[in-house]
Design a protein that fits this description.
Strands 2-8-7-6-5-3-4 form a seven-stranded mixed sheet, with helices on both faces. It has a three-stranded antiparallel sheet with strand order 9-10-12. It contains eleven helices and twelve strands. It is of the alpha/beta class. It has two domains: about 130 residues, Alpha-Beta Complex (Aspartate Aminotransferase, domain 1), CATH 3.90.1150.10; about 230 residues, Type I PLP-dependent aspartate aminotransferase-like (Major domain) (Aspartate Aminotransferase, domain 2). Bound molecules: pyridoxal-5'-phosphate. The site of pyridoxal-5'-phosphate (PLP) has 16 residues, from helix 3.
């Protein structure tokens, strides 16, 4: 059976150019980048080049990039490394919410459009506030937060601003200076690099307490011999984004809009969650009245289409998505929503096949559901 992947916000495959860049690093350039001999220096050169590529993607200096094991570690380092009272939103990824829960935290709600009101952030400031952490792009809805305005609030108040940019990288322009970010997290496996790779931008001069102690790697921000092949992969993924991603966005948005429009017109009683908000070009989250999202996910999987009900981290659980509850959906509405996230492998023919599969699956499931009038 032909299979099509519409779950790029969960993870992406490693792209050919990323694989090509990282493979020789595993076998030939295998030195420890802290060693001073030839082998070590060759690995160091690869690591430095990768750091420049990632820095170019975020528009910062290469000495402000710390390689990590992924988005979760980057978020933990950013939040626990600052400490104090933290202001965040109700739609953050668990990597942020659970880290902030270790501290004193205020969760600011979002409205139905999935966007946080900067004034609500400002009103949550306390004398002991040390950090605002607001994600750049939401993983389930694709909504783009007003990070520039929020960053300005933190800057004016004199404390740090962290943004989780895991779902922003490769999908929207990123300029950490323009949004006044002090800390900014990215993950490799959302941008066609392997799982277990990531980075954190740490503004030069920011005092961030390490979360791992050991050697003086990564400017003392993160102890442990670097995953050189992983960093090189992340660098190659960033390089591709630097050169090609912006040209891809209009096409991705057109495919997403085609998917959204066709489902809304062909399938009755469907709604786009957070419709009308500024969103990343590759994702739509659609609610199908009277449908259990897990049942629809499985029906689509049986037809060869991979989609998501909630985020990958919470799927498998019976609980509705906290993000969808946070934007005001009822439990039932949240449990009837599906996320479609597009990526490089998708084309119009695949989208059209997906639309047919959704229409047929929903019709079938609704016939089976006596409660659906
Ligand atoms: C917004 C966001 N932040 C953080 C993460 C965690 O990243 P990683 O899987 O690299 O630990 C994810 C992954 O789903 C995410 O979507």
């Amino acid at each position: 059976m032909q299979r099509y992947y519409f779950d790029h916000n969960a993870t992406t495959p490693v792209s050919p150019e990323v694989l090509e860049a990282m493979l020789p690093v595993m076998t030939e350039v295998f030195g420890n980048p802290s060693s001073i001999h030839h082998y070590g220096q060759a690995a160091r050169a690869k690591l430095d080049a990768a750091r420049r590529q990632v820095a170019a993607m975020l528009h910062c200096s290469d000495n402000e990039i710390v390689f990590t094991s992924g988005g979760t570690e980057s978020d933990n380092l950013a939040i626990l490394g600052i400490g104090g009272h933290v202001i965040t939103t109700s739609i953050e990824h668990p990597a942020v919410l659970a880290s902030a829960d270790q501290l004193s935290v205020t969760q600011v709600p979002v409205d139905r459009s999935g966007i946080v009101d900067p004034d609500a952030i400002r009103n949550a400031i306390r004398p002991d506030t040390k950090l605002i952490t607001v994600m750049h792009v939401n993983n389930e809805l694709g909504t783009i937060q007003p990070v520039e305005e929020i960053g300005r609030i933190a800057r004016d108040a004199g404390f740090a601003f962290h943004s989780d940019g895991v779902q922003a990288a490769g999908k929207v322009p990123i300029d950490v200076r323009a949004i006044h970010a002090d800390i900014y997290a990215i993950s490799g496996h959302k941008i066609y690099a392997p799982k277990g790779t990531g980075a954190l931008f740490i503004r030069k001069g920011l005092n961030l307490r390490p979360q791992m102690y050991g050697g003086s790697h990564e400017s003392r921000h993160r102890a442990g011999t670097q995953n050189v092949a992983g960093a090189v992969a992340l660098g190659a993924a960033a390089q591709w984004i630097n050169q090609h991603a912006a040209a891809e966005w209009p096409d991705l948005a057109a495919l997403r809009d085609r998917l959204e429009r066709s489902i809304l017109s062909r399938v009755a009683d469907t709604h786009v969650n957070a419709a009308g908000s500024l969103r990343a070009p590759n994702v739509t989250n659609i609610r199908f009245d009277g449908i259990d999202s897990e049942a629809l996910l499985i029906a689509l999987d049986l037809r060869g289409f991979a989609v998501s009900a909630g985020s990958a981290c919470s799927s498998g659980a019976q609980e509705p998505s906290p993000v969808l509850i946070a934007i005001g959906l009822t439990r039932e509405q949240a449990k009837s929503s599906i996320r479609f996230s597009l990526g490089r492998s998708n084309d119009a023919a695949q989208v059209d096949a997906l639309i047919d599969a959704v229409a047929e699956s929903v019709a079938h499931l609704r016939k089976l559901a006596p409660a659906y009038a």
